[in-house]
Amino acid sequence: MTRYSRAALAFAAAALVAPYASAQEESADELFKKGNEAFTSGKTDDAIAAYKSCTEKRSDFKEAWYNLGIAYGRKKQYDDEIAAYEKAVAADAAYTKALYNLAIAHEDKGDDDKAIEFYEKVITTEQDAVDARINLGILYSRKGKLDKAIEVYQKARELDPEVADVHFNLGIAFSKQAETKNDPAQKSDLLAKAVDAYKAAVEKNTKYHKAWYNLAIAYNKLKKVDDEIGAYSKAIEVKPDYPQALFNLALAYKEKKDNENAKKYWTEYVRIAEPRPEEKRYVDTAKQELEALSKDAPK
Question: Taking the model in full, what pTM does it have?
Answer without folding.
Answer: 0.86
